[in-house]
Design a protein that fits this description.
This protein is mostly beta strands. It has one domain: Beta Barrel (AOC barrel-like), CATH 2.40.480.10. The protein has no helices and 6 strands. Strands 1-2-3-4-5-6 form a 6-stranded antiparallel beta sheet, with no helix packed on it. A hairpin with a 6-residue loop joins strand 5 and strand 6. The model has no long low-confidence stretch (mean pLDDT 94).
Length: 97
């Protein structure tokens, strides 16, 4: 909470599973500072939110991340059942030109 903000996560999710809590995620990591200002990384994939680690593909990007490919690993650190608020760590592994 005390580090400088370098970007924002923007996107949406929809329920996409009958058997478990599985979401279809579409998300951009939009950078607003430094070398990557104005660039973004786009992910889209299945997120089974109660799994310890979830993996989703990087499907592209913009700016310095044009033609980006890779994957994201998501880990939930905190989840408040009453409010639905969650703290999720995203580690992004990306190749780009």
């Amino acid at each position: 909470m005390t580090t400088k903000m370098v970007g924002r996560a923007q996107g949406f999710y929809a329920l996409a599973s009958l058997e478990e809590v599985g979401l279809l995620m579409a998300m951009n990591f939009a950078f607003i500072e430094g070398k990557y200002n104005g660039s973004s990384i786009t992910i889209m994939g299945r997120n089974t939110v109660f799994s310890k680690v979830r993996e989703m593909p990087v499907i592209g990007g913009s700016g310095l991340f044009r033609f980006a490919r890779g994957y994201v690993q998501a880990r939930t650190h905190k989840f408040d059942v009453k409010t639905g608020d969650a703290t999720v760590e995203y580690n992004v592994y990306v190749l780009h030109y």
